[in-house]
Amino acid sequence: MRRRVVLGSVAGLLLSGGVAHAETFDVSAEQASCTVYRQADAGASTPSLVGVRHFIGAPGATLLIAVPPSAAIPMATTRAALSPAGPAIGQVEVAKTAAGAQVFLVPVDPRGGGPLTGRATLSGLSTTPAEIDFDQVGRMIRAGEGCERGLLANWGFGGDAAMRVARLPVPAKAGWPGIDDVPQRDMDSVNGRFTTVAWRVGPDARITDCRVVETSGLARLDTLGCAVLRRKLSYREAARDAQGRPIEAVMVRRIRWGPID
Q1: What is the pLDDT of residues 123-147, one digit of tens each?
Q2: 189-210 pLDDT tens trace
Q3: Domain range list for the chain
Q4: Contact 200, 157 (CB under 8 A)
Q5: pTM of the model
Q6: Left (φ > 0), alpha (ψ -120 to 50) or beta: where does 156 sit?
Q7: Rounded Cα distance, 27 and 149, in Å
């Protein structure tokens, strides 16, 4: 089990109907990403957003949706959907809290649909839909910026450029390492393994300094990650800051090597 390291808490002041109230988040670093947890009612009878996981350089996020045992839909029949149609939803995974509630991990990516703003209804995880406030999701991502700066420093990426990216670099080709790149001799060893790699995209749109920031536990797979990424991925435009100037970006990708179906 991964150890959760709480780096601190962030409180934001919000206005609702002219009344100020605090919104408090706990921030932790885990799995080469930052997760921001919000205060939630542990005894809630309906599904609710309890956290947001974000990777540096990722346009979207992973929503952590807690679902009471009495309302949970079996994982085999889970079909997550947003209404109105919004960001694309990736592969949903599930975990459990100490209290026995299911927590669904729902990746959302605005490149495949609407932006991470406004409100939406997330259905298909429980008998009762979950209401998602994407403005709150954005606040939670911003609350994790200090955590992300810490990760960049721990990985050896100095400077603050990655946190000033307003527009991500534009790929010329966007292939990713995966099961098809694994040598036959390693096929029996990839189930459940992940390698997370991080790399710089310079103001000239060139990839430099790719490195492993989370190991799969199998050195050959880790070495393969950056080698294949350099071969399959390139950019035609650099990242931009808020003034539209080319700027360095640090990108992160968690490569899922398995399981093999």
Answers
A1: 888 888 889 998 999 899 889 988 9
A2: 888 788 999 999 999 999 989 9
A3: 5-143, 158-256
A4: yes
A5: 0.77
A6: left
A7: 13
